[in-house]
Amino acid sequence: EVQILESGGGLRQPGGSLRLSCAASGFMFSNYYMSWVRQAPGKGLEWVSIVIGSGTGVGNAYYADSVKGRFTISRDNSKKMVYLQMDSLSADDTAIYFCARTHYDFSSGYYVDQWGQGTLVTVTP
Amino acid sequence: DIQMTQSPSLVSASVGDRVTITCRASQAISSWVAWYQKKPGKAPKLLIYAASSLQSGVPSRFSGSGSGTDFTLTISTLHPEDFATYYCQQSNSFPLTFGGGTEVEIK
Asked: Which residues of chain A have pLDDT under 70?
């Protein structure tokens, strides 16, 4: 059974930092891209970042413009873990953060087929 | 970046109704669209990928169509458990982007 479990959410002041962790199990972790997707209170889904799982691009990462330069995604295939280092936090980063297994193939592109339950990040003075 | 414009933002419907949600991409993206269902307090759920492929385990009353810039999610006969918010997502290129969402509410 596929399981994805986020941790590390919490309360931070603007300008602070937070590191989210995501533990995966039940599938060949290195075969998959892994993403972070967030949902701010009362808002829609927003893709945050993705990291490549294997091959020549392993560890390569891509980011939404809203977090580029402030957030860093990484993964440890040996531990089946994904991380999101969040720096220079602002109130706009307040959201539930979902860790998401991301499928890729040439005919379908990149889509999320398995989601964690999410972890809440609140940024407030 | 590819923008995804979803409409309508709200649908009021009754059990048994047929519901259609549309999504327009700001540039042609072939069939690289996915659709998700989101309920409050729950993780999103993948319904459709590659514009029209039904994810395993998803009821056949859900269907997707379209290519290029215009895409559609259809619920053929609305069930009580289908009241939720639905999102399209372009799966073509980074940054991945979602539509603004369509809430399907009980009429």
From this structure: none
